[in-house]
């Protein structure tokens, strides 16, 4: 962590805190816990995967609808931290509550997961927007990439503890069931998330903002309407959001549904947990590497690399047969998932007017979240129609192809004149 300021370190540590939620709740333990509960209730594998996809779609739709206006309000002095704190507390509370839901109530489990997802993703909107407050443009790629890298490393600690508890309960070396062990993992996640968010709450503050106005909410809606009109005129920003809409859809869907997909292929829960752990370990240095390579080859070229790897992932997923195949697939994902997310965040941060960062990150979020509705729905619908989860994952390849085609037309940040940025900021 040498070379980073106190504010940058505190910001980076939120990735360390929140990534435990991403792997334990979004990717690993909760999907396995849910799949087992749904199977015991007589729900077929294809249908339970589809219901999980629909749940993710509902949660992201809720957030997508409220993000722009919340982001617009948060641009006013003093509001960014308040909104971040609200969603952070919502997410931590719902995550902890998962531990107290009866294991046979799979529908109630999905409802609580929806609330936790809204809290986690909602906090990330304002966390991402804080990047412009803690770092300058020359350092954004490295800070953003280091955040993802540290997040992967940090998430492995509670993940290892959770895996150990679950496996030890399976072989009866602990005096409680696997169900109880999974619930302990939910509590560990909530506590980890809570503890390591303290540095951000203490040290990160809103530096770029708009002065408060008398009729704040009304003026926020007016600014939002104006932004919707102006964003179409700001071609680089609009084109990037369009590209991001498609390729991040595939990335998010693969991350959130990989465990359910592995279960449908017949891969055991222990193997899945070990694979996911190794994926986190491998992803950490690759995320940091992407940030370093972006300084040499540009963010845009490294985004191309990441998207192409994901296209290969979608094609390869269709031909999966063995656990070894799933290992290969997981390592391909590990090589690019952190890098593509980190560089997307820093690329976008360089394009937006700084004082309107929350408002524009609200749009960044709405594009990403509406995309995240489409991906799980596509997987769920295709899996149900064909009765084959492989077809659902394969269908995602078109999203990456459209994304990379749109990205071709986005200029690099250094090719955009300062006058363009100033004019957009002035118009808002």
Features:
428 residues; Growth Hormone, Chain: A; globular
Summed up, what is this model?
With 428 residues, this protein is mainly α.
Please characterize this protein's 3D structure:
There is one protein chain. The chain has helices at residues 6-27, 29-40, 45-74, 79-97, 106-129, 131-134, 137-170, 178-195, 198-203, 216-233, 235-264, 269-297, 299-318, 323-334, 337-351, 357-386, 389-394, 397-407, 418-427. It has 428 residues and is mainly alpha-helical. The chain has one domain (6-427): Up-down Bundle (Growth Hormone, Chain: A), CATH 1.20.1250. It is globular and about 60 Å long. The model is unreliable at 421-428 (pLDDT under 50).
Q: State the domain count.
A: 1
End-to-end separation in angstroms reads 36 Å
Low-confidence stretches: 421-428
Q: Give the CATH architecture.
A: Up-down Bundle
CATH topology: Growth Hormone, Chain: A
Structural classification: mainly alpha
Backbone shape: globular
Mean pLDDT: 81
Order of helices and strands: HHHHHHHHHHHHHHHHHHH
Largest sheet: none
> Radius of gyration in whole Å, from Cα?
21 Å
**What is the class in the CATH system?**
Mainly Alpha
Q: Please bin the fraction of helical residues.
A: over 70%
Strand content: under 5%
Number of helices: 19
Q: Please give the number of β-strands.
A: 0
Oligomer: single chain
Provide the CATH superfamily.
Answer: MFS general substrate transporter like domains
Membrane topology: Multi-pass membrane protein
Pfam families: ATG22
InterPro entries: Atg22-like (IPR024671), ATG22/LtaA_families (IPR050495), MFS_dom (IPR020846), MFS_trans_sf (IPR036259)
Subcellular location: Cell membrane
């Amino acid at each position: 962590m040498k070379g980073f300021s106190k504010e940058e370190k505190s910001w980076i540590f939120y990735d360390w805190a929140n990534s435990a939620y991403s792997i334990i709740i979004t990717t690993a333990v909760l999907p396995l816990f849910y799949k087992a509960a749904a199977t015991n209730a007589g729900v077929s594998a294809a249908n339970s995967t589809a219901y999980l996809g629909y749940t993710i779609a509902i949660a992201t739709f809720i957030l997508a609808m409220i993000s722009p206006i919340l982001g617009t309000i948060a641009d006013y002095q003093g509001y960014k931290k308040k909104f971040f704190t609200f969603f952070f507390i919502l997410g931590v509370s719902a995550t902890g509550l998962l531990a107290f839901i009866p294991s046979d109530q799979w529908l109630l489990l999905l409802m609580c997961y929806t609330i936790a997802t809204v809290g986690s993703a909602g906090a990330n909107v304002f966390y991402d927007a804080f990047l412009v407050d803690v770092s300058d443009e020359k350092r954004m790629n490295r800070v953003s990439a280091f955040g993802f890298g540290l997040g992967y490393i940090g998430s492995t600690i509670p993940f290892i503890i959770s895996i150990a508890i679950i496996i030890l309960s399976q072989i009866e070396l602990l005096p409680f069931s696997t169900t109880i062990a999974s619930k302990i993992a939910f509590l560990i996640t909530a506590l980890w998330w809570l503890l390591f968010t303290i540095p951000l709450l203490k040290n990160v503050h809103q530096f770029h903002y708009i002065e408060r106005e008398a009729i704040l909410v009304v003026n926020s809606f007016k600014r939002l309407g104006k932004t919707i009109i102006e964003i179409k005129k700001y071609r680089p920003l609009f084109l990037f959001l369009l590209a991001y809409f498609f390729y991040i859809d595939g990335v998010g869907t693969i991350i959130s549904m990989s465990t359910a997909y592995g279960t449908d292929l017949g891969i055991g829960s222990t193997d899945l947990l070990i694979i996911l752990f190794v994926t986190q370990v491998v992803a950490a240095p690759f995320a940091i590497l992407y940030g370093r390579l972006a300084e040499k080859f540009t963010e845009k070229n490294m985004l191309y690399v990441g998207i192409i790897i994901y296209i290969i992932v979608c094609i390869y997923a269709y031909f999966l047969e063995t656990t070894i195949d799933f290992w290969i697939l997981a390592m391909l994902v590990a090589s690019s998932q952190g890098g593509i997310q980190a560089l997307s965040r820093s690329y976008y941060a360089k394009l937006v007017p700084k004082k309107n960062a929350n408002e524009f990150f609200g749009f960044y979020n709405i594009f990403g979240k509406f995309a995240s509705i489409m991906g799980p729905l596509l997987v769920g619908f295709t899996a149900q129609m064909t009765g084959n989860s492989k077809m659902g994952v394969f269908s995602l390849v078109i999203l990456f192809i459209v994304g990379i085609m749109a990205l071709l037309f986005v200029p690099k940040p250094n090719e955009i004149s300062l006058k363009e940025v100033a004019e957009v900021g002035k118009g808002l």
